[in-house]
Specification:
By secondary structure, this protein is an alpha/beta fold. The protein has nine helices and twelve strands.
């Protein structure tokens, strides 16, 4: 199923080229590629638009992961998603890590490269988590400097993912949306809109997810992520959502995704599942649901435009 974009989105021209093919990812739905599904993908060749992998899982020269990814890449576009650059960290970027990323991009020519607005290392210590940053001018300058260095070294445009957060800093002097908008404006990077992260963070902080979306520079969205969350409670007994990636996409996130599609039209969309991995068929069924919603959003927008033109 090939879907067309229902309206022209006036995206700011990137100051640096997209990764891989200039067209970027197909405007359809893809899924995260897991080792459990390597053989199934090669055997069945499912009708899926693209696969996404975490860059850090492939930062070795050889081995079975590269063997299978190389074969799968012959048939499908690829999105490369980083989790370890620590863009928000106080320390300088790890140049050896950047070199390994550059090798991966040269090897697989992904159609997209993305990373998180977060930090995960301090000095020589690496923390296996994506930790939040305060939204202030000092952090803004540091994040922009890091992104500009990444794009310079990799020679491709980075998509920056909005975070899922559970705490906020009293030191913040900007909203998250204003901070992200300023980063995109200064660096020319794009936005990876994680709809689940938006819903999780807004719920945790008592905000309206639709209003959050309205404040983001949506014209810069190059890819969307959808995932599941877990429900918990904080110390005061208030609802707390955890960005767990271990369950199907929640109906509330699907609803927010429909809102995004109605605003933007069709955008490449990735279904994430990193824990409690189901069958490939189950993941593809979620991807198909996203594509059906893209089609519904397209028809809704066309009707709206036809009404306006009367």
């Amino acid at each position: 199923m090939l879907l067309s974009t229902p309206r022209d989105r006036e995206e700011p021209a990137p100051r640096i080229a997209l990764c891989g093919a200039a067209r970027g990812l197909p405007a359809r739905a893809g899924v995260g590629l897991k080792p459990e599904h390597f053989r199934d993908v090669l055997t069945t060749r499912p009708d899926i638009a693209f696969f996404e992998v975490h860059a850090e899982n492939y930062m070795v020269d050889g081995g079975p992961f590269h063997h299978f990814l190389g074969r799968i890449r012959e048939h499908y576009p690829l999105s490369l998603h980083g989790v370890g650059l620590s863009i928000g960290g106080e320390s300088p970027l790890d140049e050896a890590h950047l070199d390994r990323l550059a090798k991966l991009i040269a090897r697989y020519e992904p159609a997209s490269f993305s990373e998180h607005l977060a930090w995960s290392s301090h000095g020589d210590a690496f923390l296996n988590d994506l930790l939040p940053v305060p939204y202030d001018r000092a952090t803004l300058a540091r994040v922009c400097e890091h992104i500009e260095r990444v794009q310079e070294r990799l020679q491709c445009r980075l998509l920056l993912e909005n975070p899922s957060t559970y705490i906020e800093f009293e030191a913040s002097t900007m909203s998250e949306t204003a901070f992200i908008g300023e980063v995109l404006q200064r660096t020319g990077c794009g936005l990876l809109l994680d709809v689940n992260n938006a819903y999780v963070s807004c719920t945790n902080h008592g905000r309206d997810p639709s209003a959050y979306l309205s404040e983001l520079p949506l014209a810069a969205v190059g890819e969307i992520h959808l995932a599941g969350f877990a429900r918990d409670h904080d110390a005061a007994g208030a609802p707390l959502l955890i960005d767990s990636h271990c369950s199907p996409v929640d109906d509330s996130v699907w609803s927010l995704y429909a809102d995004v599609i109605a605003r933007l039209g069709v955008v490449p969309t990735l279904l994430e599942r990193d824990h409690d991995i189901p069958s490939l068929a189950t993941l593809i069924a979620e991807a198909n649901r996203a594509e059906e919603m893209m089609g519904a959003g397209t028809e809704s927008t066309r009707c709206e435009l036809n009404w306006i033109s009367l």
